[in-house]
Amino acid sequence: IYHTPELTPTDTTPDCAIAVDVLRATTTIATALHAGAEAVQAFSDIDQLMQVSEQWLPEKRLRAGERGGSKVAGCDLGNSPLDCTPERVQGRRLFITTTNGTRALQRVQNAPVVLAAAMVNRQTVVKYLLEQKPETVWLVGSGWEGSYSLEDTACAGAIADSLISQTDHSLSDIAGNDEVIGALALYTQWKDKMLEMFHHASHGQRLLRLNGHEDLKYCAQADSLDVLPIQKEPGVLVKKF
Ligand code: MLT
After folding, report:
1. So what's the ipTM on this one?
2. CA-based, 20 to 30 A from 60: which of 29, 69, 95, 182?
């Protein structure tokens, strides 16, 4: 587990990298693909997003931009997963840039397999890992501008918890991996009150100040979407069938 894009190594890659931004980028990405978006293309830079998306017909694209939790002027959407309804996103490509989540995706885009995970699609991600059995897996939290985030770490713990409980592994198999043991403990403490945990988290509080209560509720619903966002080419995620 790496807690922020900044802490994630650049000189080596795992077999499978999983970007996690529970509040809210990877929840939004999973929701858009589940609702029928043809792909989600992630950018760390807004100008680059505008330039690339300009080449698409307006009816085939949607631009989502978030900075500091708020919508970026000139974009169609902010980063609320609740905006990604089938009516809005079906058949379109979502071009998205967010403060931290799209940077986490960019940081790991050279790994042979890149996935996006959140609480909403946790079980689908775990199913993929159990089937494909990649040897090395990185869980990359998006954090907030270089610092630790409670909800991304808890989601990493939720993935680890489900993996361990569906295999014949035990805690002793991860002895020495302090990051995973810590994430598991965090998840175990909050698993039945994820929404309450979001209310305690710094970014949860930021979103609440921006009237994001419904977003928090949505993002807290564990295993509610059967969708696996998987990278098809650098920066472009599609739904794996
Ligand atoms: C991010 O990338 O930092 C987040 O997804 C912020 C947000 O809640 O929009």
Report:
1. 0.97
2. 69
Ligand 1 touching residue 143 (CB < 6 A): no
DSSP 120-186: TTHHHHHHHHHHH--S-EEEEE--BTTB--HHHHHHHHHHHHHHHHTSS--GGGGTT-HHHHHHHHH
Asked if residue 241 has pLDDT above 90, the reply is no
Give the chain's mean pLDDT: 97
Which residues lie below 8 Å from residue 57, measured CB to CB, with a gap of 6+?
Answer: none
Q: Evaluate if residue 9 carries a pLDDT over 80.
A: yes
Does the C-beta of 25 come closer than 6 Å to ligand 1? yes
pLDDT of amino acid 99: 96
Quote the ligand 1 centre to 153 CA distance (angstroms): 15
Strand pairing report for 137-141 and 16-20: parallel
